[in-house]
Amino acid sequence: MEFLAHLGTGFGVALSPAGLLFAFVGALLGTFIGVLPGIGPTATVAMLLPITYYLSPTSSLIMLAGIYYGSQYGGSTTAILVNLPGEVSSSVTVLDGYQLARKGKAGTALSIAAIGSFIAGTIATFLIAAFALPLAGIALKFGSTEYFSLIVLGFIASTALANGSVIKALAMIVTGTLFGMVGTDVETGAFRFTYGVVDFRDGLPIVAVALGLFGIVEVLRNLETLNDKIPETIEITRLWPSREDLRSSLGPIARGTVLGSILGILPGGGSILSAFASYALEKRISKHPEEFGKGALAGVAAPESANNAGAQTSFIPLLTLGIPSHPLMALMMGAMIIQGITPGPRVIVDQPQLFWGIIASMWVGNAMLIILNLPLVGLWVKLLRVPYVVMFPAIVAFSVIGVYTVDNNVFHLYVLAAFGLIGYVLHKLDCEPAPFLLGFVLGDLLEEHFRRAMNFAQGDVTVFLRQPISAGLLLAGAIVLALMLLPAITRKRGEIFVED
Amino acid sequence: MRANTKDVASGLIFIGIGIFFGASVLLGGLRVGGGSFGIGPGLFPLAISALLCGLGAVIAISALGQPVNPLGPVAWRGLLMVTLAILFFAFTLDPLGLAPAVFGCVLLAAASTTRSTLKGSLLTSLVLTVFSVAIFIYALGLNIKAFGPWLGG
Questions:
Q1: How far A218 CA lies from chain B's nearest CA (Å)?
Q2: Among residues A70, A210, A329, B2, which one has the fewest Cβ atoms lying within 10 Å of its Cβ?
């Protein structure tokens, strides 16, 4: 129960005026972009990353984390009231949430979604606190050999859990790794892939790459099928759920929380997979599977709890191992590096205030979110009246300003434009940008650990198989890869992500 | 012959990227060997490039015989105007300053769709310009001028 004492330290930070302020700003912004379709948390965090130069490390990470889990709350509002997912992770909530709303139970669906998210958020906060110390303890014993194999396993697992073709996701990771190698080689100082361009020597800027792939591409995708019809929203009659609805939702909320928490930790997991998987689970074990898609409350309670739990537990790999599990965590890693913090197991030891402060603030943020989202839901719905023709030029404007201010360097803007184009072409070819960004961020780390391990083993490649932990991690990776290529599993993966 | 053209195209693109980076290592004079224990700065990129070529080949070949996958609508106008908007901002920020750069950038981006009206776009541009100058220059104190040297700033 050592972690309870640490949580005490954390609440000291989270409940300080600055802690409260930035948790509130993050939760508010998160709800805002969560409600609005067409802008996701990854693009938002990328846009705001430069601003975090001006904040303290704790404040900036509290705020960025708030944006992520806040968007999970906001996304459900749009899903239930307008039949549009405000976020990708609420695309399953649409199925039953909107049907409930049409039956006059919009308020029930909204409050169950919020209550489920809150319960999931609370439990996930404690899970992170409980697992952080032991995991970081293990990670501190890892050498470069183990880290190399861990990253390889992470890459493979993230493709297995991603939506779409496994092999294309692998190719995207490898491509990201190659682009990540542009710049100066840390060990020898040699310029790689710079082609005589001075600006290339510092490598491709992550904010510009991420905003191109996620922000600009999102804008272009929405422009494909733009309609300026203001969505019709369903009126809310009664906000609080009946006692019976609440009681019947507790099971789905609990299962969603557990499943979401587990899937959130895995590489590539996070909130999206958690929501899809928990919906599939509820449908399978329900006594009335035929109700799903026609307004089953469990079809809202479970995925909404799962996506919030998954959003929060996906911080575990970054905070304890220093390895981001999905693009948004890669940006959080960027935010930490900007502040001079090396993500990894040492953070918990060297900066307990920061570490436990972020975790405690997640609970504080969740408490704020339930207030922000339930009584104020009418206010958020009004946001949907903002037409997209006004919104998307604003996204472009904030993207260019954000990218420029990273380094006050116009070169970053060319990178933004280039990756907007590249990302759009890849999107049209059904190649997901998420694995690219993971490869881009982790490629350097992979190479560094490879070389260090080789130095340590005096150039003997078999070291990765001779060290037991490393061999075990690689074996796990091989098994996952082999399983993914089995036809039966390929079909199952398809089923989980099919939205029917 | 039937084929999933999207997958064939992406496979070929991956092979192209792999060849490009691989060739850059070999022709650009990056040492593959040497260094400590035979690992030069070129070894890792070369290995990864080769892997990418292999993956690309598998993707392209396994797409043969698969059903055709339609491309769907392409936002050509958006692609052009959004790129122009970013480049306009890049070229004008230093000489003209933040205010004109944001104004033009928003106006160009808004022209991505026929659904925006000139009046509406001008209004959006004006509001966003005032907003960004207020936030980024006055509130955050970024080291950018609202009006650059060409405009007497």
A1: 11
A2: B2
Higher pLDDT, A157 or B103: B103
pLDDT above 90 (res A122): yes
Mean pLDDT value of segment A266-286: 85
Is A188 in contact with B89 (Cβ distance < 8 A)? no
What is the distance between the alpha carbons of residues A148 and A146, in angstroms, rounded to a whole number?
5
- Mean pLDDT, all residues of chain A: 88
CA distance between the termini of chain A:
44
- Which residues in chain B touch residue A401, judged by CB atoms under 8 angstroms apart? 98, 102, 132, 136
Report chain B's terminal Cα–Cα distance, integer Å. Answer: 63
Inter-chain contacts counted by CB atoms under 8 A, chains A and B: 187
What is the ipTM for the molecules in this complex? Answer: 0.94
| Helix (H), strand (E) at residue A191 | strand A191-192
Q: What is the pTM of this model?
A: 0.89
Q: Under an 8 A CB cutoff, do B59 and A450 touch?
A: no
CA distance B38 to chain A (A): 7
- Transcribe A269-290 into DSSP letters: -HHHHHHHHHHHHHHHH-S-GG
CB-CB neighbors (< 8 A) of B35 in chain A: 187-188
Query: Cα separation of A345 and A350, whole Å?
Result: 9
For A236-252, how does the pLDDT look when each residue is reduced to its tens digit (9 = 90+)?
777 788 889 989 999 99
CB within 8 Å of A109: residues ≥ 6 apart: A80, A96, A97, A100, A101, A297, A300
Neighbour-count burial of A275, counting CB atoms closer than 10 A to its CB (0-12 exposed, 13-18 middle, 19+ buried): buried
Q: Looking at B49-139, which runs of residues are DSSP E strands?
A: none
